[in-house]
């Protein structure tokens, strides 16, 4: 990668040039983000996953920019306008906006007023005025009057059209105006289409809205842009036309010198036209696009953090589970799963109106719990969830068996998906949905990777932001979560294995096929027998895969096979076997990390090895904890201001956090109600699925909106 790109990334990410250079070289060598951040800390200076991912993002951006530069240089060269200076300017570009400004005068254009003027033969007149080679433009224009041009004024008007277009394509002028526009206010006004349309009511607060562009929150801008796309708002920037026209005129003077009074009048007129007709809409779009990109990044960051927290939600673990997808008229769908998440039995009960078969349902549930030795119960949090939770309180549960409320978001999407059909081809969507609810309780990460994150109910304007950037962020987040937890090689689904560093969907299927035919893996080294899994893929994935009870105890840890020799040496030096050392914190404390540093393995890697040896394969996720809603709140009409209620955080946005308090409607803790002074980042205050205590501050029954204040966490 070229030096100026490395310098930009280093400055942007607050890192050193050598860190960027090493990362880029490792990417080019086929290394993955999890592998680099976990096992190559000496080369990165201890960069974490997010930092490595950011460098990867910019490396990809600049790789694409290099291709674009080739196109731009080729087009300018074909136009006969490429100079050494222009080539160097293009070469040094690190901004796509700057690059496109340079290319703008040479891009193929639709037919414009300037094009028409050129067809009339007026470009030489425009050139003379542009280069300040005439002090009397009217006299110069008289030479062009003829069959095609009827008068001096017609000639001057055509020349001004050409000059206006050139002014609008001058990079320095465009950047000057961008600077002005960035400091102005974004304004919106209601359109005629919105006035009698009930769909527009949700945007009412933006009907006559104004705020400095640099201060507008991401969610406000994205909402306004969505409303504009739907035809309900007109959005602009309140730039001063007179000042901006002057900026255009003086931009010309800086480049070409001060014109004579007569020429100045023509240039000023062209400047005013260039601004009003060409620059204002173009710069407005450019700056709003720039602002949207920032809003996208901020929103995607929140989405990624929500997803990270969701995927790393505490698992209940391998327990026989009763999963209940609650409902009224259509009944409660029940699925019984074994400790590995396999379906043992399914049925439907009707404990709620209109059937109200309470006694029959109680008997059926009690029998299933005893017959299948149920150890945990998962209830979906959708329709009839609270009623089903109350119903289950009448059941006599075995000792240690607890009832949990589980998010249903995305379960219906999963149940109708190709993944679900492949996993449970003989079951209908209702059974698959209940199974998914149960598996989410057992291991949220293993189940949720099967669902597009955009369907998990945790986004903020996820359909409005840059979809490619969103996908990149979410893929990186899922990959981080899977690899930070580690994957059981002998039980993981192909969908989970696909996110392990270096594997992907195709190799994941090959691994499962080999596992089924061989009866399971006994060592990590056996991975090399999987078809098409070569040395590079093994290097990337091996440290993130776990084999419980295998021939080598290190295979159940995060110690990479390339470091097994170091562990063997540690064990020999202590006079014990590697098996005796693994998991023995007391022995690990006797080891001096400095004694095992080599040219390839520095202190960070040795410290990681010792940490892993002390607690091999430790799951970084917290333990699941019980929760129950307030018994006296079942409807929004039960709420009173001042009430304090338990709740579960269900979504976090830039403007606050949504909390489930046991009703069909979630309440909102606005950022102003989080008890934090100054600028508030909600993702730093609360966590997804965190149990909190909230105070009711407002209730709007008509609009079904509940305002909350954060009291305890």
CATH topology of the domain at 481-614: DNA polymerase, domain 1
**Percent range of helical residues:** 40-55%
Parts with pLDDT < 50 across at least 5 consecutive residues: none
Distance from N terminus to C terminus (CA atoms, Å) equals: 47 Å
Radius of gyration: 32 Å
The DSSP helix count reads: 31
Number of strands: 15
Query: Which structural class is indicated by helix and strand composition?
Result: alpha/beta
Summarize the main sheet.
5 strands, mixed
Strand order of the largest sheet: 6-5-4-7-8
- Which whole number gives the mean pLDDT? 95
Which of globular, elongated, flat, extended, rod-shaped describes the shape?
A: globular
CATH architecture of the domain at 481-614: Orthogonal Bundle
Portion in beta strands: 5-15%
CATH homolog superfamily of the domain at 481-614: Tex RuvX-like domain-like
CATH class of the domain at 481-614: Mainly Alpha
How would you describe what is shown here?
- The protein starts with a helix and ends with a strand.
- The strands form 4 sheets. The protein has a 5-stranded mixed sheet with strand order 6-5-4-7-8, with helices on both faces. A 5-stranded mixed β-barrel has the order 11-12-13-15-14.
- It is of the alpha/beta class.
- Helix content is 49%, strand content 12%.
- The chain has 31 helices and 15 strands.
- Among the domains are: 3-106, Orthogonal Bundle (Arc Repressor Mutant, subunit A); 321-442, Nucleotidyltransferase, domain 5 (2-Layer Sandwich), CATH 3.30.420.140; 481-614, DNA polymerase, domain 1 (Orthogonal Bundle), CATH 1.10.150; 636-712, OB fold (Dihydrolipoamide Acetyltransferase, E2P) (Beta Barrel), CATH 2.40.50.
- The model has no long low-confidence stretch (mean pLDDT 95).
